[in-house]
Amino acid sequence: VIANLLSLIPSDIWWIRITDFPRLQSAAALALLALAAACFLGRYRYASMALIALMLATLIYHAAVLLPYTPLQGALADSACPSDKRLAVMVANVRLSNDPDGRLIEQVRRYQPDVFVVLEVNDQWLDALAPLEQSMPHTVHRTTGSYFGIALYSRLPLHSTEIRYLAGQDTPQIVTEVELRTGERVDFLGIHPRPPHPSQSALGRDAILLKAGLLLHDSDRPGVVAGDLNATPWERAVTHMREIGRLVDPRAGYGFLPTYDAQSWWMRWPLDHVFYEAGFDALELIRGEAFGSDHFPYVARLCRVEQSESETRNRPDEDTLQNARDTIERARNQDTTAASS
Prior knowledge:
Elements: H1 2-5, H2 14-17, H3 23-38, H4 45-66, E1 86-93, H5 103-111, E2 115-119, H6 123-129, E3 138-142, E4 150-154, E5 158-164, E6 173-179, E7 185-191, H7 203-217, E8 223-228, H8 236-245, E9 247-248, E10 272-277, E11 280-287, E12 298-304, H9 318-340
Helix pairs in contact: 3-4, 7-8, 7-9
């Protein structure tokens, strides 16, 4: 019970934040333990009843968090979207050590994304993906020699494209404008922050997510954020990013759609995302097939609609914005301290 409630603590410590990931698996384990505790009702009646009550209360908490990610609302938006207003976005973390044997390219050709964000690329992967440039000639990439190389391939023209190091972190992110077939430009962010793990806290990751939200908040154009966020959609940092950027998560009401770990049948959760501002609606969400990586590809087909016809969100309050700025400043100071040492 204690382990399952650790995520309620507002801390950057990695082992606290990591408990947000296997929430579905934790709920299943709790349910089994509650059944096991019921076997002791005859011998330790009151202790067992108290323990079962605690487990059931924790299960209710899990259910409240996971309920939006059950397929309760059925289909997404009306698929009758004009072709010139469609935007298909695909995300794939290729895993640096994975052999680029052509299975990913085959899926890209099958799903025909307009914009394809690729994470953990190195020079070998860029060479393997080079054939995509025939149909997706607008490209930008940055390899790092580590797990945080990033590339973007686009059928649609890109403008004002930058490789940026958001929040002072040493992981490159792509900030650009995509010109739709109607001629309208929309903001597009391809991001891949570092995950919380034993050698680093969640501060840098959260700061990058919040900075992405602020970039969209400060723009007059509708925007899209796509990538491996190394965060589940119910985490506090993602919730605040969505609130600041007024972003919609199309998974809500559609389904869990876990994209990690593709190499495990039971330890899976959604880490790859496509969020969008009002002005877009989702037509279809697809989890692609395994291709040797520890992530599945993820595809979101969107439609550019009038903002009044799409889901709208309230503007964030000033406290939320200031907390985001403070988090980003703390991350920058941490990064500066690490570099100087």
